[in-house]
What we know:
The structure is a homodimer. Chain A has two domains: 8-71, Orthogonal Bundle (Arc Repressor Mutant, subunit A), CATH 1.10.10; 83-224, Up-down Bundle (Four Helix Bundle (Hemerythrin (Met), subunit A)). Chain A contains ten helices and three strands, in the order αβααββααααααα. In chain A, a hairpin with a 3-residue loop joins β2 (61-64) and β3. In chain A, 64% of the residues lie in helices and 4% in strands. The first copy, chain A, has a three-stranded antiparallel β-sheet. Chain A is elongated, with a radius of gyration of 22 Å. At the A-B interface, α1, β1, α3, β3 and α4 of A face α1, β1, α2, α3 and β3 of B. Chain A binds a DNA duplex through α3.
Amino acid sequence: MTKTDTHMTMRVVNHIRSLIESGGLQPGDRIPPEREFAHKLRISRASLRTGIGYLAAMGVMDVRHGVGTFVADGPPEIGKSSLSLLGALHGFQSWQMFEARRILESELAALAAERGREQHFAALSEEVAEMYATVGNPMEYLIHDIRFHRVIAQASGNPILAALMETITSALYDERRKTAERSRDLKESADLHREIYRAIRSRNAGEARTVMTRHLTMAQSAQDLEAMATQPKNDGHPRKARKRPVEI
Amino acid sequence: MTKTDTHMTMRVVNHIRSLIESGGLQPGDRIPPEREFAHKLRISRASLRTGIGYLAAMGVMDVRHGVGTFVADGPPEIGKSSLSLLGALHGFQSWQMFEARRILESELAALAAERGREQHFAALSEEVAEMYATVGNPMEYLIHDIRFHRVIAQASGNPILAALMETITSALYDERRKTAERSRDLKESADLHREIYRAIRSRNAGEARTVMTRHLTMAQSAQDLEAMATQPKNDGHPRKARKRPVEI
DNA sequence: GGTCCCAGAGAGGTCCGACCACTAGAATAC
DNA sequence: GTATTCTAGTGGTCGGACCTCTCTGGGACC
Lengths: 248, 248
């Protein structure tokens, strides 16, 4: 156990954690106003806010100015906002993100083939159709592309893997936003998505995995070409921890 | 872009983010004292602390009472502390965590077989030997077990996947701490680890993946047996968002 | 000369109480 | 009935006081 006593922030976190674990607090629920809650916990409002801030940063709480503080609703997010920062910090390479995505999504596709339900197949079919319909509009196309992959993640029946995928892809899109796709590639992309859809619908897990891998490998090399001459990579960390505070 | 102006906390986060991305701040570096830094940014110390707290929650900063605030050093962690909380919140099932782990580690093993270096092989060999030496001591054994998997993650050459694995396994160990393993299973476990090691050393990616999958599948069913009659699962969320604050 | 102990400096942690800013819903005006 | 304005409630920011922890350097002691 981590020290559950001292450290106000941990006191708050553990209090709320136990409320969640006991089921007393469920997604969408609202916690009492800060002043009231702080008084009830016998701590200052500032400390309460520290704890809530911690939970909010982890995606567990949702703080809305002027409205209240709620337990996060919607799909789980695992360190979604932190990945790009951690990436900058530890020098994650673009290919590493692609590799992670390729592995996750391939397995997700295989699982979707095994466990997907009719509703998922229908949604996938719908998105494929939309993709074909928007090959001339990269902006629109991208939306359906994202949705397609998201449906697969849902169909996999494993929310943890889905959340991990979401984390990676959103970080990837941050980098990708600049590289607008050329629409002549989109037809090809749509074809691949259709293949993936068919493999999943026919419950052919191996095929789904294979095609998904192929799709993402192609997507990566396509983007690599566009990027080419980009930022200088800093591989090894020439980190020399400075004890004196950095000049800001 | 998210609103980078208003919201003091985001101002702080973005300021530090840009410092990190520009290389002005590196792992291990120390940021100025709160009072000084706050004054320099023209914000109150409280707001600065909110922002720092946010970054600390994401694992980007490391705040040490009485010492100072540092940019996180050591291996990256992605939402490590949040997963168990998110799990309680979204009703993650134990088998889902195992599945995620199985997938990640299997691929990690395959990658390690392809990219591992001599130093990794040596470390793996060392840990296997230690495992055999401690089959009579589950506590000690576990340490080397964990190290073994961690070395594989490093050898994979993909820190992102390694960090994801670390997140899952640490959440898993939280649950597992109660179920002490019976030492008669450990010999069998050590044998499997040795097989994994051999597959990796001989650069047989497929074999490494297969054996790792087998190992983790066995580990899961072993633990399932021990657990058996546990906590009641709440599958579907009968979530009914309450607008009125919950009674605490 | 080396070792141990302790006070002080410097850093983060907590608290208070006031005031600002936003949101949603009620009251009002048209 | 609809549009506008007001207001209560809630989170956000502030600054400034005081507490607690860590590290370190100087002195007492051996």
